[in-house]
Amino acid sequence: MSLTSFAQYADDALRFSQIYYQGTARSMAVGGAFGALGADFSTASTNPAGMGLFRTGEFIITPEVANRNVSSVYNGSLSESSRAIFDLSNLGYVIVKPLGKGSNWKFFQFGMGMNRLNNYNASLYMQGENTINSKLDVYKELADGTLYSDLENDDPYELYPAWYLYLIDTLPGTTDLYSTAVPFGGVLQQQQVISRGSKNEWLFSFSGNYNDFLYFGASIGLPYIRYFRESSYAEFDVKDTIPNFNNWSVTENLTTTGWGINLKLGVIVTPFDWLRIGGAFHTPSYYWSMSDTWFYTTTADFGSGFSDSYSSIVGNFDYHLSTPLRAIGSTAFLIGSHGFISGEYEYANYSTAKFTARNYNYSKDNQEIKSVFKSTHNFRAGTEWRFSNFSFRGGYALYGSPYNDKINDGKRTMYSGGVGYKTRMYAVDFAYVYSVMNEDYYMYTTENISTNPVQNKFTTQSFVLSFKYFIN
Description:
Layout: H1 9-17, H2 25-29, E1 57-74, E2 77-98, E3 105-119, E4 122-130, H3 135-143, H4 151-154, H5 159-164, E5 168-170, E6 178-180, E7 187-210, E8 214-236, E9 247-272, E10 275-282, E11 286-301, E12 307-311, E13 315-322, E14 326-335, E15 339-349, E16 354-356, H6 363-372, E17 375-387, E18 390-399, E19 412-422, E20 426-441, E21 454-471
Antiparallel strand pairs: 1-2, 1-21, 2-3, 3-7, 4-7, 5-6, 7-8, 8-9, 9-10, 9-11, 10-14, 11-12, 11-13, 13-16, 14-15, 15-17, 17-18, 18-19, 19-20, 20-21
């Protein structure tokens, strides 16, 4: 990958480690706080002991429509962008086997299906004037000390195209020191980042019910990552103050895919009819087949009819990723047959994410991950109230900031509500989820050169509908 891209590995580790549980509409409507309640397929991804509360089999499918809006402020300039999303949040099938009246073991359950763990669909657009530096200064810093004849071998994706198009060039009388076409800043900078994809987890769960008191479960998770990003960056001399320069741009196209595996273990106890207490442990997810494919297109316009472009070769890199273990504790208070109030706590330490590869030493990148990120404490709470065949729900979730510094916020807050209708044969559930997150973004940064942060506010409105058919 290009030399300027290796610093992004910490961001990639966080992106592919973070989980925002989605799944069924019922679970999402109560903030995802279902770990001690069970009898919902979403618990296969949180606390698989919840699968032990199923008494009848079911088939469930959950489509989702969402809109994600991003407001970006860069050097005082406000930009907004939005993206519509249609996806499948959940698909599940549960088989329940009664174990006989004479046994304390009441039921055994087997479930298989998919829950979505993260959604990568977004569109960001940001622009503002930079009077101090240019991204070409980053190219110059990285190229200094490298012979121009070696640039194509060292970085054929960004540095060599920039040199080929005279965006950077060797100083007179030198072969490894460079100047740039934008030596003093003073450019309008624009960047658009369009991303697509998701992290979905395919699950095989096994659970049991002992005397309606102890419920246990285990899930084998096979998370699958699909991530596509097109990032277009450009600089313009809008004030016509830079000699022999109009504009330049670079566009990165990146595709990341990967399969992983993990194990989830859970237990629920019911010391009283009105109380359930649950706990779960998730091993780290090990992604054995992560693969990046990328290419860059660079353009330069110097005016006077001179403009050119350069498309890089297509790069590919295979590696492995280990994401953090998780621990979850949950409690639910049952109000007879009228409803419940539930709460959940989750711990994850993002500084433990780790990359490995056969032909690259990730020690520096893994050290950066340890220094940038920290452990997080996530909280989820929800309630449901039943009136005849109808249920009304509300929820709240707070996912803590993963960043060590206090400058970057990074926490995500979710507010949710919903309604359900249930008969003996089927159930239909609807959920609305509103989430908001503030996070800083840097167009480019090195130890010596950086832009001011772009202050991004992400707001997402999700409309989720589950169709459930009971199998007796």
